[in-house]
Amino acid sequence: MQTAKVPETPKYPARPITMIVPFSAGSAMDITARMLEKDAVNKLGQPLVIVNKPGGTGTIGWNELVSSSADGYTVGMSGIDVILQPLYGATKYNYQTALEPVAQISPCPLVMVIKGDQPWKNVAELIDYAKSHPKELKFGHWGTGSISHVVGQHFAQTTEISLEQVPFRGGAEAVTALLGGHVQIAFLSPLSVKEHMKSGTVKVLAVTTEQRLTDPIFAQVPTFKEQGLDLVISDWFGVVAPKEMPVEIRNKLAKGFEAIITDPGFKKNMENAGLQVEYLNPQESGVKWLRDNKKLEQLVNETGILELIKAQKQ
User: Fold this and answer.
1) Exposed e or buried b for every residue in 149-173, given b needs 16+ CB within 10 A?
2) Where are the beta strands (DSSP E) in the chain?
């Protein structure tokens, strides 16, 4: 009597892996995802299929990711908004408990930008002007409650100046408004203003990192810290997956993405695009999530942004 064969469990991954990007095509996050895509077959064993699901400051894409099967065939790109948006009570899920980090790819600092023909040479001169011209200056950001809004409001509060905040639907709109003189300051990603800085149409007065950026275009830009302001906070890009993935699949994904992100060719491609690489493994990423959550929770309360968002919902 023959023993019936037990069907073999398909080796993971046996088919392409979908990667949800919760922001639009052409955004810095999307560019990063497509860099990962280039080496996915070699390092993960299957291609990545990029699917853009923009809207709701990332929440539309992350909601879809949470509700997908935890079988390792759907992952997503993440940014600091995965922590920030639930603080406003506006999300369907608490992403910190519904998703888990697979890797951090890149730190994404913000820069404070002014139009190239403005007279201010540094942050101190801008602050002096703002104090002697209260409520005259406006700052642009890429959406109410976004990290660029938080940083701008934090800057105004720290320096005790009055700035009117103006939300836009993305970094590109904020740049256009700055160039058109509709706002005098903007808090944006370096990538969104790099070409304008090269041409001299904008000036960058400060960056939100501990150390200066390595990109030659921005290497001469001082940090806020160098200019006497305790303003150190950055966005970041990472890879996330639904929480309940089997441990062997999670480990394989983590090793595959580590191999892609730490490859010298990937780093070179990212730097050529104006982005940095700082790999963190799942555990290190989890620690960073907790640390950033604590800092952001304090900032959205102190700056009044949480109160503003609550008022807008009423």
Assistant:
1) bbbbbbbbeebebebebbebebbee
2) 17-21, 48-52, 74-78, 99-108, 111-115, 138-141, 164-167, 185-188, 202-207, 235-242
CB 76 within 8 A of CB 61: yes
Q: Under a CB-based contact definition with an 8 Å cutoff, are residues 154 and 160 in contact?
A: no
CA gap 235, 81 in Å, rounded: 8
Please tell me the pTM assigned to this model: 0.87
Q: pLDDT tens for residues 65-101?
A: 999 999 999 999 999 999 999 999 878 999 999 999 9
d(CA 252, CA 136) in angstroms, rounded, equals 54
Segments in 102-145 forming alpha helices (H): 123-132
In the sheet that holds 138-141, the strands lie side by side as 164-167, 138-141, 185-188, 111-115, 202-207
Whether the Cβ atoms of residue 76 and residue 18 lie closer than 8 Å to each other: no
Give me the DSSP letters along 239-267: EEEETT--HHHHHHHHHHHHHHHTSHHHH
Amino acid at 79: G
Could you report the per-residue pLDDT of 123-168, keeping only the tens digit for each?
Answer: 999 999 999 999 899 999 988 899 999 999 999 999 999 999 999 8
In single-letter form, the type of residue at position 226 comes to E
- Residue type at position 136: E
